[in-house]
Amino acid sequence: MKKMIPFIIIAILIVAIIVIFVVMNGKGATNNKTNLPQVSNVAELTDVLNKIYEGTKVGVYNVETREIDLTDDTSVKSYTGLKNGEQLEYAIVSEPLINAQAYSLVMAKVKNGVNANEIAKEMSEGIDTRKWICVSAEKLYATNSGDIVFLIMTNEEMAKGVYDSFKELAKNVGKEYEKTTEEEALPDDTESDIVIPMPQ
Q: Among 17, 159, 162, 175, which residue has the least CB neighbours within 10 Å?
């Protein structure tokens, strides 16, 4: 029995090392298997977005794509829902030229060691789907593929069409986040405290 103890200890150590290895790799589980092209700058990220648009089977607004200034916390919060851009290498936003249309698509590359799917989750929870003056996004989808984070919010048909195009291009995505914006109820006139005097 005493001869077996060293083998048991060694077996336990091997199992512990395997568990630690799996847990450490799981921390960065951003779905590294992706069919997206390798991206090393903003122009290449924009090229990926253009391919997504090319594969989209629904009509998209006349949009303009531009780089997000990651040093400007206000812009980062408005476009991504994140408090700041510290965990992002670079990011782009695609929105209509006419601001009265509820449409926003954001793609970002995270820095090395950052869990892209966690960033996708933070973005989906932090973004304001009613950031426009008189319209709101009906549907939001967010996920990641490798180190690329993707978020779109607009009307349901368009959001799903563009999101499906992203997934088709990427082939593999991480955990998916979805949000539906409910219409705000109009105030009930019968409960109004305003009294209009009847004409005499």
A: 17
